[in-house]
Write a structure and sequence with these properties.
This protein is mainly beta and 111 residues long. Helices cover 4% and strands 13% of the residues. The longest helix has 4 residues.
Length: 111
């Protein structure tokens, strides 16, 4: 459930229900605009543990960086993700069951 949104984010509001996506979609690159692929050139699977936007981590413990798992850190209680790495779902959908679909959902589609 979205707790807050960053500057410039218009597709999500506080309280929206979302799933995080390991392979995001920027909706503008060659792959995102193609009907043949969703392997985004800009928000593809991030394996370095940092945010796509600035290559930094958003988590620290005792001043030391804690890296994001595949840019979503979905095993943490709270996380920070690029808006292209989330997809809005219906508010009445059971999140405890929907969470299993996160790996297989493409951004830009409502469930």
């Amino acid at each position: 459930i979205v707790e807050s949104v960053g500057q410039g984010v218009t597709e999500f509001l506080e309280g929206d229900h979302v799933l995080t996506l390991f392979t995001g979609e920027c909706k503008t690159c060659r792959h995102c605009t193609s009907s043949k692929s969703n392997m985004c050139q800009n928000l593809g699977l991030e394996r370095r543990g940092v945010m796509h936007s600035d290559q930094e981590t958003r988590f620290l413990i005792k001043g030391q960086p804690v890296y994001h798992y595949c840019a979503v850190s979905s095993f943490s209680e709270y996380t920070v993700v690029h808006s292209g790495c989330a997809v809005k779902v219906r508010p009445d959908a059971p999140l405890d069951k929907l969470c299993l679909f996160s790996c297989g959902v493409a951004a830009g589609k409502y469930l």
